[in-house]
């Protein structure tokens, strides 16, 4: 008798990721495609980061704190001849049940297909610090210990110093809250049209290059090892 994996059963409680997992199950998900999950509190601009990286406007965005991403959605792109899959997640903060579903979904995705990198998006302007800690802990509990979590600080288009100075100023505070990141990027998620200002446009271009560097530093050239029923390969950790 053949048993369907849990995420393909009709009684699955992972509805926010079911469609994505089914698509991956019917594709060659074991190829050398790095899986990068992007996640954060509702309104921090995670979907805008997706568009910044892919150079498109495919991920829906909102100008308020209402959630745009209702379910896990994958966007494929190439960088320096290498293939990546950016997986945009629903945001934390809409309800306790949604947070629980996100955690279960991340565990299932990591178990079945492997997660190579997590972008934990945080707003550079003042926000609910306790929510940021709770979200970080939820992500860390959901993915394997060897999966690096990196901080992506958004909303820095009008930051008075250089964007990366935000990290120099705030890193110690994050560590004091036990939010320890493998790497970071400080960016604006404006597009060049919305920027409409030479200085802001320069920050958009800088942000695109910063995100490219973040990806290349943390997704090494070869995925090795095998996990899950389709045998995804994981990259070497240094």
TrEMBL record:
Q: What is this protein's record name?
A: G domain-containing protein
Q: What is the lineage of its organism?
A: Eukaryota, Fungi, Dikarya, Basidiomycota, Agaricomycotina
Recall the GO molecular function terms of this protein's record: GTP binding
Chain ranges of the G domain? 36-129
Q: Which Gene3D superfamilies does UniProt cross-reference here? A: P-loop containing nucleotide triphosphate hydrolases
Q: Which ranges of the sequence are coiled-coil?
A: none
Q: Which InterPro entries match?
A: GTP-bd, P-loop_NTPase
Q: Name one Pfam family in it.
A: MMR_HSR1
């Amino acid at each position: 008798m053949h048993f369907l994996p849990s995420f393909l059963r009709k009684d699955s409680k992972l509805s926010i990721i079911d469609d994505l997992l089914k698509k991956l199950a019917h594709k060659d998900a074991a190829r050398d495609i790095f899986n990068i999950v992007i996640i954060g509190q509702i309104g921090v601009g995670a979907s805008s980061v997706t568009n910044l990286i892919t150079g498109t406007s495919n991920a829906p965005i909102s100008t308020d704190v209402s959630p745009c991403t209702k379910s896990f959605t994958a966007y494929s792109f190439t960088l320096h001849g290498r293939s990546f899959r950016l997986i945009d997640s629903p945001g934390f903060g809409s309800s306790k049940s949604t947070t629980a579903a996100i955690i279960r979904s991340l565990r299932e995705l990591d178990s079945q297909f492997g997660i190579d990198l997590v972008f934990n998006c945080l707003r550079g302007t003042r926000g609910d610090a306790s929510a940021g800690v709770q979200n970080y802990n939820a992500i860390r509990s959901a993915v394997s210990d060897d999966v690096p979590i990196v901080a992506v600080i958004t909303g820095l288009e009008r930051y008075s110093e250089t964007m990366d100075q935000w990290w120099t100023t705030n890193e110690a505070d994050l560590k004091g809250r036990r939010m320890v990141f493998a790497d970071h990027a400080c960016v604006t998620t404006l597009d060049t049209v919305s920027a409409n200002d030479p200085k802001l446009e320069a920050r958009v271009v800088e942000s695109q290059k910063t995100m490219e560097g973040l990806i290349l530093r943390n997704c090494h050239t070869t995925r090795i090892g095998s996990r899950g029923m389709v045998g995804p390969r994981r990259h070497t950790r240094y």
